Amino acid sequence: MLYQILEKLDNKFIFPEAQAHCDIPCGIYDPSTAQIDALTVVRMMDLMAGLQGGDDKSKIEYHNSMSRYIAVKEEHAEKAKHEIRVIWGDYFKKDKHPNVDDLVQKIMQLGSKCRQSVDRETGLAFVEAINEFSAKFWETKGITTKKAKAPYAPALEMVYPVL
Amino acid sequence: MIPDYKNGDFVVILRSPFCIRRFKIGDTIIFNHIHYGVLIKTIENILPTGELFVRGKVENSLDSRRLGYVHINSVIGKVIWLIGKE
């Protein structure tokens, strides 16, 4: 009875709505985009280091290039973090995959550090942590992985699924 | 027991700011999310900063690992009564 009354009131006054479930889910997950984002971060660090040792810093071209490298580094570090968060939140289940939380925390912290600094070792650690995450991800699907050098700069060893 | 929320259910809420100091783990809140709009989720944890870690009821529901922590300012209210369709 109360429900019917509310229903009539809703039809007349249109109550605000809230969503309880808002994910599809599509089931499409792949850590490769996060891996490429992490590689991009290291690439930007290398380009910034190269620029530092070269052009006259008073030149407008120097500032333009450095600004763009910084912007791309920021964008891709955050994108990598976002992609990992999505797979961690939507795919991994705490009770079935108990060892992932600490790795994700490490990736988040390394990603932030990559934004704050241009330390290449931090960038390499970021790539390595995401590679480790990728290996764990493919393992849950029963897919073996291999390591191979990326075919583009900075040509770091990456984890690839053997499909 | 946390009730399921089904399409068409009505909820009565205690609107913010009257509910702000009365949050506890297990409370169900309605809040605004910048990307997903108005959501209804359960408080799983309250951080020392006052931010809320929220989760949904079913396995595939989004939780704060994807949504981020919920700031008190984005809370619309706390659910105090569910009037279900059935």
Explain this structure.
- The complex is a heterodimer of chains A (163) and B (86).
- By secondary structure, chain A is mainly α.
- Chain A has a single domain, classed as Nickel-containing superoxide dismutase (Four Helix Bundle (Hemerythrin (Met), subunit A), Up-down Bundle), CATH 1.20.120.
- Helix content of chain A is 63%, strand content 6%.
- Chain A has five helices and two strands, in the order αααααββ.
- A two-stranded antiparallel ribbon of chain A has the order 1-2.
- In chain A, strand 1 and strand 2 (157-161) form a beta hairpin.
- In chain A, helix 2 packs antiparallel against helix 3, helix 2 (32-52) packs antiparallel against helix 5 and helix 3 runs antiparallel to helix 4.
- The termini of chain A are far apart.
- Chain B has one helix at 64-67; strands at 10-15, 28-33, 37-46, 52-55, 75-83.
- The longest helix of chain B is centred in the last third of the chain and has 4 residues, at 64-67.
- Chain B is mainly β and 86 residues long.
- The model of chain B has no long low-confidence stretch (mean pLDDT 81).
- Chain B has a five-stranded antiparallel sheet.
- Chain B has a single domain (10-83), classed as Umud Fragment, subunit A (Ribbon).
- In chain B, a hairpin with a 5-residue loop joins strand 3 (37-46) and strand 4.
- Chain B contains one helix and five strands; from the N terminus they run ββββαβ.
- Helix content of chain B is 5%, strand content 41%.
- The radius of gyration of chain B is 12 Å and the shape is globular.
